[in-house]
Specification:
By secondary structure, this protein is an alpha+beta fold. It folds into 3 domains: 21-92, ATP-grasp fold, A domain (Dna Ligase, domain 1, 2-Layer Sandwich), CATH 3.30.1490; 96-221, D-amino Acid Aminotransferase, Chain A, domain 1 (2-Layer Sandwich); 232-377, Succinyl-CoA synthetase domains (Rossmann fold, 3-Layer(aba) Sandwich). It has 13 helices and 19 strands. It has helices at residues 5-14, 28-38, 65-75, 125-131, 149-158, 163-182, 222-228, 232-239, 258-270, 287-297, 317-330, 346-353, 364-377; strands at 2-3, 22-25, 42-46, 59-62, 79-80, 83-84, 88-92, 96-107, 112-118, 136-141, 185-196, 201-203, 207-210, 243-246, 251-255, 277-280, 305-312, 337-343, 359-361. Strands 1, 8, 9, 10, 11, 12 and 13 form a 7-stranded antiparallel beta sheet that branches. Strands 2-7-3-4 form a 4-stranded antiparallel beta sheet, with helices on one face. The longest helix is centred in the middle third of the chain and has 20 residues, at 163-182. The protein starts with a strand and ends with a helix. It binds guanosine-5'-diphosphate (GDP) and manganese (II) ion. The site of manganese (II) ion has 3 residues, from loops.
Length: 378
Amino acid sequence: MKLLEYQGKEIFAKYGVPIPQGRVAFSPDEAASIAAEIGKTVVVKAQVHAGGRGKAGGIKLAKDPDEARAVAAQIIGMEIKGLKVERVLVEEAADIKEEYYLGITTDRAARRNIVMVSKEGGIEIEVVAEQNPAAIAKLHLDPAIGLQDFQIRQLGFEANLPPTALKGMGAFLKALYKVYLDYDCSLAEINPLVLTGDGKLIAADSKIVLDDNALFRHPDLAQFQEEQEDDPIEAEAHKRGLTYVRLEGDIGIIGNGAGLVMTTLDVVQREGGRPANFLDIGGGAKAEVVTQAIDTVLLDKNVKGIFFNIFGGITRGDEVAKGMLSAIEIIDIKVPIVVRLTGTRAAEGLALLEGSPLVGAATMQEGAQKIVALVNQN
Ligand code: GDP
Ligand code: MN
């Protein structure tokens, strides 16, 4: 899960990281009243899960409440990288002298967390990595040792930070590392860390990505999670406890096991079809889950056919077949459904399906061919 800038900054504040004074606003009027509270020039920043907001016109200065209202009206409702802006952060504008980058992420290849510091802040680190990789000082962390003061100094020197920044940067990096560990992050960034005209450091942006598998350990973030579901079908699927990702095609895909479902997507694509989704019912799914899965896939009105690919291990074929039959009974299904069922109790499952409108397939490939043909026919 990604946090929005203001949500990440709320966490930073808890950890004593200096951030500009400000709050989130959902309307131009609200933005104006926050600007009035602050009583200085403010910056109005689009809150969407995307970088490069400045370039896209999503970050604007406003010298008084009226201007804040006007720029908020421009920014709220605009689209940045396909994401609609629904809220803005209104905060005291920073007097920016220099911009640095601080970040921590997981380096899977090294099986370590990696800390990065750069003097080239304010732009996306991927761009710096491409154009000027030497400008990023990096250090892999030993989990038993953590992040020590001497390592912080070493990183600062390597990144060529000026003495004013070197002095204060350590506190930011330590807090960032604590946030990274405490919140089970896969990424925690301050970009830019701003050096102001009067020599102070302040976190002007936050980017935090949390490991979804650890979210249950952070009930305080549950509200952010609900808010961040942009896709209503994905939101509904997750509420139902299904592992579902919406794609752009028209063939609904349901299988058991992530690997099998991904392979099914590939095979359908190779047969000339366009998958509409990824849906993994997991291992040992009961009939009810199967019914729910069909219902969820059909929430997407682009779906013109469904391909079920079930390999029975702990999942039982007869259980899956019962789920399909009950779905047909409950839901008014107008699209063709192709079923490939093999493994545990496949014969019993297929026997149950006999006489139903479901189309059987002996192999994954045959199933893919059949569903593509049926969808193209209609
Ligand atoms: P991102 O590009 O989406 O990551 O958004 P950032 O929050 O990093 O802001 C992008 C850029 O906008 C910064 O690098 C600054 O140059 C500029 N910016 C952000 N906040 C302020 C501010 O308070 N004052 C001024 N002058 N510029 C700002
Ligand atoms: Mn940024």
